[in-house]
Amino acid sequence: MRITHIAIFLISFFSLQAQDYSSSSPWHIQAKDFDAQNYYGITLANGMVGLVSSPEPMKIADVVLNGVYDEYERGRVSNILKTFSHMNLDLEINGQHTNRHSIDNFSQTLDMKTATLVTEFTFQNKASIHHELLSLRNLPYCALSIITVSANEDIEITAINNIISPNHLSDNRNYYSEIDRPHAQIPLLTSEAYSPGGKTLSASTSFIFPEESIKPARIIHQEWDYNKHSMKFKTQIKAGDTYTFAIIGSSLSSVHNNDPRNEVERLSIYANLEGIDRLKSAHIKAWEKLWESDIIIDGDLESQRDIRSALYHLYSFARKGSALSISPMGLSGLGYNGHVFWDTEIWMYPPLLLTQPDIARSLLEYRFNRLEAAKENAFAHGFDGAMFPWESAEDGSEETPVWALTGPFQQHITADIGWAFWKYYELSQDKEWLRTRGYPVLKEVAAFWMSRVERKSPNRYEINNVIGANEYQENINNNAFTNGMVTTVLEYCALAAEELGQEANPEWRQVAANIPILKFEDGTTRENETYDGEIIKQADVNLLAFPLSIIDDEESIRKDLNYYEPKLSPRGPAMGSAILSVIYSRLGEADKAFDLFKKSYKNNEVAPFSVLAETANGTNPYFATGAGGMLQAVLFGFGGLEINEKGIQQLNTKLPKGWKSIKMTGIGLEKETYTK
């Protein structure tokens, strides 16, 4: 049997991958000798399809489709849809099944540079297996597995690709066909089913055999039951030879395409005829383009790898042109029902605005497309303008569970969204975008807050009965962060009107100038009217120093830091520590900032890939909000970057001990490089 040029490449790559990356590579995260009972998978995603790894070799734990929601398993609100698990592979060698208990030298390695999960193992000294999994960046609805089997003795392999339907799908229909062409016979394994709400979901897979490889004599279709069917082939491999094949998989819903079954089959046929080389090459080039925007640390390998992991996940969970947003858990599973919160605009969006402004613009497009739903929400609550929901999903209506008061009361999100829209304009200076997208949103945000504030005297406008960033206290008056963000965004609304040559409503600035920020007697900012030193869930007051710059004198900033830092709950999400890190960096205390930077995520890492949970010692990864927070500590803190009316500027901040330099590449629309 001949060794193909693809196999030769993979063999050389295989020998490279066998090394231990734990102490040497800034691009690889490796899992070896892990506990399957304490395993939290790594996600391969392309902004549309998320594949979550499994402790079983060549298996997928979950497949998540972005932008597709339905009511199932999670009560009375929508949940992001888990769809067919279509990229699973069972491999038998001489009739014996390979699984976690029958193999040796099992490792999984995420190559962040190429967004590839490499699985390796040996089977009874008979063969070595090298498996690569990619959620193809070049084909948003497609994934690719490349399998290379190297035989140490004569063996027969049986490769079985399964499509498995989750229990919440109904009326499953399974199909198998072969498209016969003069130079190719294309097998197609396809499933179609319906979500509880009637959406159609489809998945299709196909084996790809390189031209130089010996094709199997036949492919057999097996249907186990309505929820599972398979296609498989057998082939012999002689001692010393290597055999390579691949599986291409496509996944769609009726939200993405009116005819998902036919479209997934078209996509699988297309990808099959593109071939392994072209598919993988285009995927790698797409990621090379993303990695033009990178953060390079000299002197701290651990921090470098952690920062790249955060970038990798944010880049994986979104894509330009999709008009979709990011949930707190990205495409890593069903956490927070896949809904979109303030986590996007305040935590994940700012680092993406610097590194991937086209993706950031797509996140804003998600909100713009749901502006009418936000206006309906305001109307229902007796207000003008647009009241964006605390939890948003497919159509932009409120998706917060009824028992959670955050839905109707955590109204700062409407100001947060307006803030994010203006920040995009500051960075881009795109007046056409401001005219068609930015100002229409900002104007409705202003209208909401003008109807929402309560006039207590000619020069006092209060915002009462809200929930602030610190969710431990509900139905409070004059929350610091809410009032500060509303003050800020009303000014932005006026600036937006003036940029377009329109007359700003003079009442916007009048109200903004008279919204109170409360203080204790010693001048420390008071979180709300009744706050009296309780433990807080996360930073609230400190957000007035960054990102809002409402509190900008050093004495006041330090007072607030000294008061609120000890009150951050160890059970709260990590973003508070990240914000404090930025502030300390800007105060010139780089080592204190570094301690808080590490605190913001290090205790949140879970085995075996160090993916982030929401809280220290938590188990709900991947927490993309936390990744956004720690990246802000790097970009806006140590790196000193700032987005303001002049665009991107760099402040005079210091690096922590051990960091010889920081280099931030591909920043902004001009893809500039900043160093320190």
Please give a handful of descriptors for the protein shown.
Beta-galactosidase, Chain A, domain 5; alpha+beta; globular; 15 helices; 676 residues
Q: Mean pLDDT across all residues, rounded? A: 94
According to CATH, what is the topology of the domain at 5-290? Beta-galactosidase, Chain A, domain 5
Q: Determine Rg (CA atoms, Å).
A: 26 Å
For the record, give the distance between the C-alpha atoms at the N and C termini, rounded to a whole number.
Answer: 55 Å
Structure description:
The protein is of the alpha+beta class and 676 residues long. 32% of the residues lie in helices and 26% in strands. The strands form 7 sheets. The chain has a 9-stranded antiparallel β-sheet. The chain starts with a helix and ends with a strand. Residues 1-18 have low confidence and may be disordered.
